[in-house]
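re: ur question from the group chat, yeah i did fold both. here u go
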Amino acid sequence: MSIQQQIEEKLQREFSPSHLQVINESHMHSVPANSETHFKVVMATENFTGKRQVQRHQAVYRTLSEELAGEVHALALHTYSPEEWGEVSEAPASPNCMGGSKGG
């Protein structure tokens, strides 16, 4: 099972999200081809209603602690309640990588 699939399964199981995207952004960074090191998670769930962003992120970090201690180098989180997601419906674009050999 790929790391992306592991992340998706854990987040589905823990949060039962109404919206979930796990996007492998490793290709945007200075890593070998087919790497699974940089991800963006866009998630809307009732679990986040009334919670501050830091509380939401901490819950995701707890759920993905094994992946973050291993192969995953970066995790961009865009977390929403279903109501917030209904108002936004699109996560912000990720910035270009400026580290490693991509920085110039």
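okk and heres the other one u asked abt
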Amino acid sequence: MADEQKFPESIKVQLPSILDNDFYKFTMQHAVVKLFPKAQARYKFINRGKHVFPPNFAEALQSAVNQMAALKLSMQEKHFLDQNCPYLDPVYLDFLQGYCYNPEEVKIIQQGGDLEVSIEGYWYRTILWEVPLMSLICELFYKETEQNRASDDEIIQNTSKKAEMYRRLGVTVADFGTRRRHSFTVQDLVVKTLTSTGKGFFVGSSNVHLAMKNGIKPIGTHAHEWFMFHAAKFGYKMANSEALENWTNVYRGDLGIALSDTYTTKSFFTQFDKKLAKLFDGVRHDSNDPVEFAKMTIAHYDSLGIDPLSKTIIFSDALNYEKVARITEFCRGKIGFSFGIGTNLTNDVGLKAMNIVVKMTEAKPESQDWTPVIKLSDEKGKYTGDPKEIELAKSILKID
């Protein structure tokens, strides 16, 4: 347990709510509770940007993690989920009301400027750690390295300017910026500004607390770990199809956007048959060239005799205005599309954005041993996991 007296009040960071998390964490948790209550998982922090952490950073992060144990779902928050997310079972909402973070599931070690963070426990519990841990790491890093951001007024003006540009472009946009935000304060300002100025194009936020606070829609379905676990349980050849079948068994047509790139989109489309393509409203793009992805997706729907204009692509990979404009120019009139924008909204404050992730590394389905899990992605730089396991998966799936 960290000695909290060592850290000045100015560098303490505390999350405002248990719902200060991405919506897909709760929708996946709901599905895990129903289908895999005895499964276990391990996660690790990956410092893609090679950021050097200041002395005593681990202690400050541990202090913030310890404070998370006090977070509880309020009756008002439970009512919000019940009224706005009818596909979440009452039994799950009761479970979430009784849930609390257990800091003992998180191990934090610092050696010099290197930071190691790992998570282990039952999957239905540990699944909620990833996003708040990443947001805490970002906020504490900027605070402890004493990097001054743009002022609140500048952030509001910058966000309002972006809102006007997206409105003129005629697209719909959601905030997907919790994980690598500069801070809660900045994301709060951005979402509030978009809610007030973005009528007609701003459709919601992945952050459930901010969606509730601003009276907007919480947005999200599932993440890569959903497919990674299914690979551990069913094997790489069956991972995508089993993951999607299980998703539809839980949600019965709701939350119908499928993530395509856990084991490359090319492999995904070999299993995304006519049944699944009709059941799901569309797909999410999260790596590699978005226009090439759109071409591949349109061709796949055409090959199945499905009108691409009846489906939607959610683009969510490192988006800015220029990239959104390029995608819009290609997709308009060919397929439905929308955008989930993260860092460019919630960490555009005059500082270098952090490049970090937390990924599942091993899974232990019921009555099975611990199994390494990997993500291949459409972009080799985003591969995660043991190199030998990556080569095995590529061989099984016939990926170059």
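fwiw on the second one: Residues 1-10 have pLDDT under 50 and may be disordered. The chain has two domains: 15-147+356-385, 152-346. idk if thats what u expected
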